Amino acid sequence: DKITVVGAGNVGATAAQRVAEKELAREVVLIDIAEGIPQGKGLDQWESAPIEGFDTRVTGSNGYEESAGSGIYIVTAGIARKPGMSRDDLLTTNAGIVRQVAENIARVSPNAIIIMVSNPLDVMCYVAMKASGFPRERVIGMAGVLDTGRYRSFLAEAIDVSVEDIQAMVLGGHGDTMVPLISYTTVSGIPITQLIDKERLDAIVDRARNGGAEIVKYLKTGSAYYAPSSGAVQMAEAIVKDKKRILPCAAWLQGEYGMKDLFLGVPCKLGRNGLEQIIEVELTDEEKAALRKSADAVLEPMALV
Ligand code: NAI
Prior knowledge:
It is a single chain. Helices cover 42% and strands 21% of the residues. The protein is built from 10 helices and 14 strands. The strands form 4 sheets. It has a 6-stranded parallel β-sheet, sandwiched between helices. It has a 3-stranded antiparallel β-sheet with strand order 7-10-11, covered by helices on one side. The chain has a 3-stranded antiparallel β-sheet with strand order 12-13-14. β8 and β9 form a beta hairpin. The longest helix is centred in the N-terminal third of the chain and has 18 residues, at 91-108. The mean pLDDT is 96. The structure holds 1,4-dihydronicotinamide adenine dinucleotide (NAI). 1,4-dihydronicotinamide adenine dinucleotide is lined by residues 6-12, 31-34, 76-81, 90, 94, 97, 100-101, 117-119, 121, 142-143, 146, 174, 222-225, 228. The site of 1,4-dihydronicotinamide adenine dinucleotide has 35 residues, from α1 and α4.
């Protein structure tokens, strides 16, 4: 009945607004360390309720008490990329922030589900899981939905079809090594390779891989937040409505895909209990090698936290 968003910056505030407009909870709490910011943004959003027609009460706070009993926490606290920075450049600063956030969540809402957004995503999931002491079912990372969203939107544009008809999955870590699965990309069930030539497809895969950097280059002062907040809220919706959706999410692997003890993007079934199942799909040798390489890129910064 209550969803909390930690970090009232670009991604967090937009996520709170989307949750409210979709009425995914009766109450949304925005938390941030910046004084006045979550209170001001929360009040502003609540004042849009009569106009937009939602009854979700949005409030803001600098503390965690108001969020007690939340079923879901969307964690977006931390610093974002600027031009020239990689996601890994955010590691030390954000690890300290996420550790403190996760401890507070565990203290006031011991049964909550955490949807991690802060970067570097896969490592921050690990920090949150350790600091909260939550089982893997309740710490899930958002990256694959966004990376897939980018890939799907570029494809829809290229072949001029509805974005909704494009099914796809991008696996692996949230970085340059992400693994778009071409063999599982379809347009209303039609394999994508029947609708676009290899050269154009490769260019789209490449653009999706660098989709985050493309936005950073335009914005200069920050990174993407409309599509990232959509991704986090889609995951929250799957959980709140117990939809059993299969979405690419960062999950703590325990032998799946031949890997253990790291967060990596894989197809996950999301429902009331959070991560309800990791779906293991067949991969080509090339995709397996790419996933392995992506895992290595996650393990390296993980050793530093
Ligand atoms: P932002 O700078 O607009 O907002 C971050 C907010 O976190 C600020 O309001 C700041 O005051 C707050 N904050 C800092 N320390 C805090 C603490 N200890 N407790 C509570 N709040 C705290 O940044 P933006 O654009 O919203 O991005 C947030 C994070 O999400 C970044 O790390 C960014 O890299 C990441 N991100 C991840 C994506 C993904 O696909 N997983 C996509 C887009 C962004």
